[in-house]
């Protein structure tokens, strides 16, 4: 999708940008309110998030549980560090597969952009190895749905 | 170019992913690779054989040692991981577009007399 960018930065960062045709308030709420998060933060087709805890205050807990409906699944836990409605969210998160991955520190910013919003998400990993490992684990989750598309790319 | 099916089977194991992650920072011997894990060197050697068979690592001979490093094609695989992360996120954000559009509709209806 041309309106999203994703790039690595230095050894430890991954930076994602995306434009949305909605106000920063709406996009911020879609990132913090459980009933909204459950509608879109799902990864490949066929996955659902039956459990979503998002306590949007500093120190508040995050817990997302995903299932593929076929007995497969995993979960993520995290904590909010800083929230500036409706412009900035800082949190840490880790996946449990079932062993926890090292912490991913995420800063998400929402800037007004014309009538819409420009979101910038900056992930920071402890080191280059962790980033590589995180990419590997994410990819394992994403690979099922992406596999066919990928084959046609090669 | 490693076979994707073999490459992904090779990646399905957490120890092998950790080995690859370690090799991302440079060449290492079996002994160095075994150190952080609670597994024996023969077990690590078996994992290395799988990774080598999948074309993700290459090994060279240096006396009695056979140090390993990421294969250039294995590094391509990391690029492919990035491509897949991009696809997964793009999918999420396309879905979010729909959520935002629906929320906007609801608000407009609320504003109606």
Give the SSE layout.
The complex is a heterodimer of chains A (154) and B (113).
Chain A: E1 4-9, E2 13-20, H1 24-32, H2 34-40, E3 48-54, E4 61-67, E5 73-84, E6 88-96, E7 104-113, E8 116-124, H3 128-153
Antiparallel strand pairs in A: 1-2, 2-8, 3-4, 4-5, 5-6, 6-7, 7-8
Chain B: H1 4-11, H2 14-23, H3 30-34, H4 41-53, E1 57-59, E2 68-70, H5 72-111
Antiparallel strand pairs in B: 1-2
Can you characterise this structure?
- The complex is a heterodimer of chains A (about 150) and B (about 110).
- By secondary structure, chain A is of the alpha+beta class.
- Chain A has a single domain (about 5-154), classed as Alpha-D-Glucose-1,6-Bisphosphate, Chain A, domain 4 (2-Layer Sandwich), CATH 3.30.530.20.
- Chain A is built from 3 helices and 8 strands.
- Chain A has helices at about 25-30, 35-40, 130-154; strands at about 5-10, 15-20, 50-55, 60-65, 75-85, 90-95, 105-115, 115-125.
- Chain A has an 8-stranded antiparallel β-sheet with strand order 1-2-8-7-6-5-4-3.
- Chain A is globular.
- Chain B has about 110 residues and is mainly alpha-helical.
- Chain B has one domain: Arc Repressor Mutant, subunit A, CATH 1.10.10.
- Helix content of chain B is about 65%, strand content about 5%.
- Chain B has 5 helices and 2 strands, in the order H-H-H-H-E-E-H.
- In chain B, helix 1 (about 5-10) runs antiparallel to helix 4.
- Chain B is elongated, with a radius of gyration of 22 Å.
- The termini of chain B are far apart.
- The mean pLDDT of chain B is about 80.
Main attributes of the structure:
heterodimer; A: 154 residues; alpha+beta; Alpha-D-Glucose-1,6-Bisphosphate, Chain A, domain 4; 8-stranded antiparallel beta sheet; 3 helices; disordered C terminus; B: 113 residues; mainly alpha; Arc Repressor Mutant, subunit A; two-stranded antiparallel ribbon; 5 helices; 2 strands; elongated
């Amino acid at each position: 999708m041309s309106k999203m960018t994703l790039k690595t930065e230095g050894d430890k960062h991954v930076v994602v940008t995306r434009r949305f045709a909605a106000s920063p308030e709406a996009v911020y709420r879609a990132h913090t309110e459980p009933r909204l998060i459950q509608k879109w933060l799902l990864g490949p087709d066929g996955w659902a998030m039956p459990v979503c805890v998002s306590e949007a205050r500093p120190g508040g807990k995050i817990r997302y549980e995903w299932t593929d409906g076929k007995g497969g699944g995993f979960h993520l836990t995290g904590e909010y560090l800083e929230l500036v409605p409706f412009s900035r969210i800082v949190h840490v998160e880790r996946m449990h597969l079932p062993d926890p991955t090292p912490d991913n520190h995420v800063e998400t910013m929402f800037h007004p952009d014309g009538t819409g919003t420009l979101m910038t998400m900056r992930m920071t990993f402890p080191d280059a190895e962790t980033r590589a490992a995180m990419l590997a684990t994410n990819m394992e989750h994403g690979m099922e749905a992406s596999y066919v598309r990928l084959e046609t790319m090669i | 170019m490693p076979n994707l099916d073999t490459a992904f089977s090779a990646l399905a194991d957490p120890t092998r992913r950790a080995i690859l992650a370690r090799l991302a920072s440079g060449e290492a011997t079996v002994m160095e690779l075994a150190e952080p894990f609670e597994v024996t060197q023969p077990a690590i050697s078996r994992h290395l054989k799988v990774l080598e068979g999948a074309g993700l690592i290459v090994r060279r001979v240096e006396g009695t040692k056979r140090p390993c490093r990421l294969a250039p094609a294995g590094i391509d695989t990391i690029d492919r991981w990035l491509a897949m992360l991009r696809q997964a996120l793009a999918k999420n954000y396309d879905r979010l577009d729909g959520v935002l559009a629906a929320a906007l509709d609801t608000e407009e209806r609320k504003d109606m007399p």
